[in-house]
Design brief:
Shape: globular
Order of helices and strands: HHEHEEHHHEEEEEHEEEEH
Helix content: 25-40%
Number of strands: 12
Radius of gyration: 17 Å
Largest sheet: 12 strands, antiparallel
Distance between the termini: 29 Å
Length: 261
């Protein structure tokens, strides 16, 4: 099957479900669960069905080429770590990216991720964090060390350079984010840094509120394009969560009262 345009959500979900049944069954799923328990981040190799990868990549590239905004910040709230990238926020993607939107709301995707992390997952109550696109495309572009507000991030990799050119993911599990006194260097000294190189079509799931993470700076004129999706835990739904860095990087939107679990 080749998907070249948006089809019914059920067809998209079925494509994911069929693919996952062959790739993440039995011992493969058990291994992912064990890795996530130990490291709080795990690559999902070959996550995207081959018949979907090019279509989603084309959709994201078209959105990025037309609507991407260059960003360059350092955030005091994350100990002045840098963000240098091109981004597109949720409202634009919702209008122009049916495959990305359908992936976020796919029951098959949510079911797999919940099985990997070991708890029920929910649609993020803040629509601005449902999904965003970011691209590192210039030498030095990076998504510097940070934590996230909600418990879980799911990142679909659409373009990635060879690891020798940067763009790989680094994570420091079992750390904490004090927004009033962030201490990136302290977290680096106390815990082991783990690094993960990923290929187009891979994904990873990460416990972002307790795992400090970054993308290593790009070297040369290479590109890394990803879709970042946020999922909430049951405990997140009971907390008052702010969205400072998301709103600065991606624009943000108001609370989406129509979000479904």
């Amino acid at each position: 099957m080749t998907i070249t345009h948006a089809g019914p959500a059920a067809d998209l979900d079925s494509a994911y479900a069929r693919h996952f049944a062959g790739v993440y069954a039995g011992d493969a799923l058990i291994a992912l669960q064990q890795s996530f328990r130990e490291e709080n981040i795990v690559p999902l190799r070959g996550f995207c069905p081959p018949e979907l990868l090019q279509a989603i990549r084309s959709e994201a590239s078209s959105i990025m080429d037309e609507h991407g905004v260059d960003r360059k910040f350092s955030f005091e709230i994350t100990d002045n770590t840098p963000r240098q990238m091109t981004t597109v926020g949720q409202p634009v993607i919702k209008e122009h990216g049916p495959l990305i939107h359908g992936t976020y709301f796919s029951p098959a995707v949510k079911s797999l991720l919940a099985a990997v992390v070991g708890e029920e997952l929910f649609t993020c109550p803040y629509a601005g964090e449902h999904y965003v696109i970011s691209r590192l495309g210039k030498s030095g572009d990076t998504h510097g060390w940070h934590w996230d507000d909600y418990s879980y991030g799911f990142i679909l990799v659409l373009e990635a350079p060879d690891y020798r050119e940067g763009g790989f993911v680094q994570a420091v599990p079992h750390t904490s984010w004090d927004k009033q006194n962030p201490d990136v260097h302290g977290a680096l000294l106390k815990s082991q840094v783990r690094s993960y190189a990923l290929q187009p079509g891979d994904a990873y799931v990460i416990k972002t509120d307790t795992t400090m993470h970054r993308v290593f700076p790009i070297r040369g004129e290479n590109r890394r394009t990803i879709v970042n999706m946020t999922l909430a835990s049951a405990s997140d739904l009971a907390r008052n969560i702010t969205h400072e860095t998301n709103d600065a990087l991606f624009g943000g939107v108001g609370t989406d009262s129509g979000s479904a679990r």
